Amino acid sequence: MVILSAGKPAIPRVVAFTQTRGISTLNTKPNNLQRGRSSSTSSTVFPEIKSTQETAAKAPLPPLSALPTTVLLRSLLVATISSKPYLLLPSLSALSFLCKPRKGPLLNVDRNPILHAILKSTFYKQFCAGETHNEVRNTIQQLNNMGFQGTIMTYAKETVFDHKTNTQVGLGIADSTEGATGELFCQQIEAWRTGTMETVELLGENDYLAMKLTGAGPTVTTAFTNNTPPPPQMLSALHEICTRCKERGVRILVDAESHHFLAGMLSLTLDLMRQFNTDGYASVYMTYQAYLKSTPATLAKHLAAASEDGFTLGLKLVRGAYIASDERSLIHDTKADTDNAYNSIAQGALKQELGGFGIGSEKAFPSVNLFLASHNRESVLSAHTLHQQRLKDGLPTVPVGFAQLHGMSDEVSFSLLSMKGKGVEKSDPKVYKCSTWGGLGECLAYLLRRAIENRDAVGRTGDEFKALKGEVGRRVRGVFFG
To answer: Is the Cβ–Cβ distance between 438 and 46 less than 8 Å?
Structure first.
């Protein structure tokens, strides 16, 4: 997944890579053969030249050919760091150190211009959409130009609970005051509401809003921890946000958060789905983390709620991103176990056989919309293949979308995009990029998670790293050899 720079991709002197909707074309200056000066002789004496040229012209370009050159080079730089432990571990330590609250300007990424410039030009631009509205709009437009169905955008403000230290990172001090009506008014909830509403207005009809509910501050996180309703001010903000998204055709993904807050978040999100998912499709989705051992049981309960209360369950499935801070005993023992859990849930939903519902059960499968967010090539391609096959065979299935994080797994994203027009009519894969916007300081916790996610991906990132190097090599060869 890559972050997109606002500038235009560099155009080599001889070869120009032209961007269209997910397709790159290769324009070269005509050589002697192309001008016809010696094409006849060459094709007679060396007939294999013509054959080779024709084959090359017909050969499909690799998935990463759609990336602008500047984005490709930055992706290669970050992938190099991510795939080399001796580079990744110091980077993790530095990001973790900078995430800790500091009062002095030297280590404050928003106040130190040198530190800000280094981080923004590398990790921030790779994984985040921008610090200003204009930067975010440019990123969304560039993603659209590359052929993506839309963008998933998150306002960066959040809170992370660290199980090891029993502390909450990113949590400010409660600053509630009593309003004119006697109700408490929290500045942090209001700031979160304002930032989230700004995000909604940046999005279009094909886009999604990803909400970090813990960004609303300590009064909300305390409610989540205790599994009690959040303050009325938060409920009012959520109703306003959901109503505005409904008006604009923007759907909502309630993002994954630390397990410490999960019980309260699940209760709140179910209530939102009951209210806004009653017209046959999901306007609100909950994110389920496959690495949690409790997820299958949680899903079974939510499928039952959707069946009993008559709403569409929005099921966004991820593997999980809080392994560094969540309690380890809550998480599957091995990556293979997590992979199996992810694939079982994804394919079970596509077959409409999940959680005791569907074929082989007395309980009919409820209305479900599925969203698969994964960097695992095998998981997403097998899910797309299954979905296509069931549509072709006239078997029941559910609507499905796919997403990868901005700055990661572009090879997976563009592989999905390359399948457009190759399956059942009007069932092309709907592929999205998920990004985050906000000030550099606000995004540090997000950037740290992206780096941590790559810590176990030295092997996985190797495929992406190899593909990026191959695409850079292909473009370089094009410059020198036409």
So the answer is: no
